[in-house]
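Hi, here's the filled form for the chain we discussed.

Project: internal
Contact: R.S.
Residues: 262
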Amino acid sequence: MDIQDIIKEALSFPSKTYVGWIVITALLIINAIMTQVIATGSMLAVIAYIISAIVCLFVLGLNISIMRNSIHGNGPNFNLNLGQNIGDGIKSIIISIVYAIIPAIILYVVAWISGLPTAISNLVIESSSIVNDSVVYTGLNTASQATVASAFTSISITVLFALILIIIFELLESVARATLADTGSISAALNIMAVVAKIRSIGVFKYIGFAVVMSIITIILGIVVTIIGAIPYIGSYIATIVTAYIVMIDAYAYGLIYTDGY
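And the returned structure, exactly as it came back:
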């Protein structure tokens, strides 16, 4: 399918599965209520935390379920299975953790190679002084130009690598979730080389282009959510309708692009 066709089909999906849209919206409203209860710091906060965690797992699981239907060509169906949905939600969180740990480790190594810890340490030492046995910050103007330049270079290199790694692993994680939806296997989803091979079968540039378009759509809808959420008292609840829409179109669209790799 062309990217345009995938996007069109995904955008119309929630209206064809209004029951699923209502269910996800209801779950998000429950989560919003629990968040307010947690904010009160009352005795009910612990119970609210537990309910909120279960709801989040449920929504993540439904996300995988929508992907599964999209991949297997089941059309605009919505499968509600508490046990399976929560199980998929837990697997989805594990995938997120693993795909966050790997770039974090790589970034840690890059930071050391670029000399970031030493550069920051030297910058702190040269921009501080001891006054009455206390360390007082005196400003960057007291640090040497070479030290400031070294710190700036190390920070720039680390930040650049961080942005690149975030983008790469976000792209990988989305296909990993789709792999979980397709196979039901978390080990298959965590097989990075297999995920990379899947992206190649889809077409690297096609997949990146698709991801960019989806990101733009998500940002625009996110702005809408923010604007609606600013409405006093009821805004955060009304905004869940749009948030549920985002959850559904994102899952369905990534399921469709995944099938291009078959």
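Let me know if anything looks off before we file it.
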